[in-house]
Amino acid sequence: MENPLTTESGAQTELVADVILIGGGIMSATLGSMLAVLQPNLRIVLLERSIELAGESSGPWNNAGTGHTGFCELNYMPDPTDGSKASSVARQFHLSRQWWTHLARKGLLEPGAFIQTTPHMDVVFGQRDIDYLRQRFETLTRDPLFREMEYTEDPATISEWVPLLAEGQKPDEPMAATRHPGGTDVDFGALTKGLAQIITDAGGRILLEHEARSLRQSPDGTWVVGGSNGRGGTFKIRGRRVFVGAGGMALRLLQRARLPEVRGYAVLPVGAAFFRCSEPDVVARHEGKVYGQAAIGAPPMSVPHLDKRFINGAEHLMFGPYATFSTKLLKRGRLTDFFATLRWHNLHVIAAALIQNLSLMRYLFSELAARPRKKFAKLQRFCPHADIDQWELAPAGQRAQLVTPDRRRIGVLQQGTELVVSNDGTLAGLLGASPGASTAVPIMLDLLQQCFPHQWNASWTSIMREAIPGFTAATDWNTATTAGDVDLERQPNERGDHKPTRNGQLGNDKSNS
């Protein structure tokens, strides 16, 4: 591939690319890996404002690392008789895993570097929540993807599943639990770097410390991205297509591009913190990700969970989330970030959404006012014997919760992500938060179809259907369908490597750094 970098002057460089990816997180890396596999001669340039990839929401300490499958996320099912959202998320995550499996078989990814099998569980207390969990279990196990889920109200079984939680609970308090053995912990930071390596191996460029600040379309239809670099200079990149996967800063860039599809859109800054424990004797006594039920009156996003994490070869526990507040839209952002997204046409949208979510506002204020001991009491509800000296409260990622205009309700606070694409298909951006990382692959498949229709219809469809068998709408999802991606295939990859990882999954000798 021809080097896309050309020098315009001593202070400014201009690049020419086929595809520009703004943001060095899991979304840009996923799209870039797909394009590098589908058409290796594409000139791809990825821009990241930080000194490293995955420094924001994709970083391992900035999220709980849950491979969202609906196994344990109670907020996906406020109605225990309706499992449609949990089922949809499970299918989307399996598409992601099938793509990773395909890359692992080709020797492009090492699964053990980013994914570990760990049970996904729910534990609830009191008859009201027990009845809810039992009904949820009965609903979900009618779906083949959830058939391995187990349910119990037996204290001895719960103690066996989650000894750290069972110790010290009141003996007369009823409890119930569900458990699915096929859950995962995903280090999305390591995965992002592994996918980025695929981009550079195909000849793409990754430019760190390059902050995109302007985005405009030229008369010839190409896009010009401008900004500053870490050396005090400026840059310009001209590209045929642009994807904005810049997390909290995505809306601001799309607004600057004057994209009509985001008119009236707004974002609200949402931060979180987690208690973290790295004491080996404590960590060794807990396996899995355990979700509980949100307190009465609390918003769905406040569902508490205790997570086993695998980061940089070490094991840790995380519990949360605890709400934090800042007007930044990125962890390493600026206090002016939120205000820079305000427009006259989205102020009423934000106001309407806030009025409709007063319980969320009350929850946020109570969380912000809570002292550390009160916050720790929430953890002790899960683990009565937890010692505050063994846990530290650490800030996690900063999110931008999406608010969209609505004819009837004026403004609606969205819980997921939304892909927006320009009318000509040359500009796309991703807005919103969870469960974005887990569903990166289906989101990018949607983008490929909208932004590259000719290539998609000509040859890419057949390639991606072979790589991701579940992509076809006719897929009959069952345990046999997903057996290959559950373990990311315990077979040699195309290069013949047989490198077992710590949990028995196969990797290869290719570095992810």
Brief descriptors of the model:
22 strands; disordered N terminus; 15 helices; nine-stranded mixed β-sheet; 513 residues; alpha+beta; 30% helix
List the helices and strands and how they pair.
Elements: E1 5-7, E2 12-22, H1 26-38, E3 44-48, H2 84-105, E4 115-117, E5 120-125, H3 127-140, E6 150-152, H4 155-161, H5 163-166, E7 175-180, E8 184-186, H6 188-201, E9 205-208, E10 210-217, E11 223-229, E12 234-244, H7 250-256, E13 266-277, H8 280-283, E14 289-291, E15 305-311, E16 314-324, H9 337-340, H10 347-355, H11 358-369, H12 372-382, E17 392-406, E18 410-413, E19 417-421, E20 427-432, H13 440-451, H14 453-467, H15 479-486, E21 499-500, E22 506-507
Parallel strand pairs: 2-3, 2-12, 3-9, 5-14, 12-20
Antiparallel strand pairs: 1-2, 4-8, 5-7, 6-7, 10-11, 11-12, 13-16, 13-17, 14-15, 15-16, 17-18, 19-20, 21-22
Helix pairs in contact: 1-6, 1-13, 2-15
Describe this structure in words.
The chain is of the alpha+beta class and 513 residues long. Strand 15 and strand 16 form a beta hairpin. Helix 1 runs parallel beside helix 6, helix 1 (26-38) crosses helix 13 and helix 2 packs across helix 15. The chain is globular and about 75 Å long. 30% of the residues lie in helices and 27% in strands. The two termini are 22 Å apart. Strands 1, 2, 3, 9, 10, 11, 12, 19 and 20 form a nine-stranded mixed sheet that branches. Strands 6-7-5-14-15-16-13-17-18 form a nine-stranded mixed sheet, with helices on both faces. It has helices at residues 26-38, 84-105, 127-140, 155-161, 163-166, 188-201, 250-256, 280-283, 337-340, 347-355, 358-369, 372-382, 440-451, 453-467, 479-486; strands spanning 5-7, 12-22, 44-48, 115-117, 120-125, 150-152, 175-180, 184-186, 205-208, 210-217, 223-229, 234-244, 266-277, 289-291, 305-311, 314-324, 392-406, 410-413, 417-421, 427-432, 499-500, 506-507.
